[in-house]
Amino acid sequence: MRGCRRSRREAEGLPKRWSWQRKSVLRLLRGEDIGEVSREIRVPLPELDRWRRMFLGGAARGPAPG
User: Fold this and answer.
1) How far is CA 41 from the centre of its chain?
2) Rounded to whole angstroms, how far apart are CA atoms 66 and 49?
3) 17-50 pLDDT per residue, tens
4) What is the model's pLDDT at position 1?
5) pLDDT at 61
6) How far apart are CA 43 and CA 4, in angstroms?
7) Number of neighbours of residue 25 by Cβ within 10 angstroms
8) CA distance linking residue 58 with residue 64, whole number of Å
9) Contact between residue 65 and residue 32 where contact means Cβ atoms under 8 Å apart
10) Are 64 and 44 in contact (CB under 8 A)?
11) How far is CA 27 from CA 21, 48, 65, in A?
């Protein structure tokens, strides 16, 4: 029955390849222009903005218990 459980990441709608996406969001938080990052990584600007909001929402909730 273990295979039926969804991970917290999946339940929150986070992408499976979060590593490079997280790095992209960190670039935005360091002050890089969202348009430039969007073009460089070939991700639509609204999607990149959504990643940033998800990242910041997770930071506001704090670390996962464990």
Assistant:
1) 14
2) 29
3) 668 888 999 999 999 999 999 999 999 999 999 9
4) 43
5) 72
6) 31
7) 20
8) 9
9) no
10) no
11) 10, 11, 27
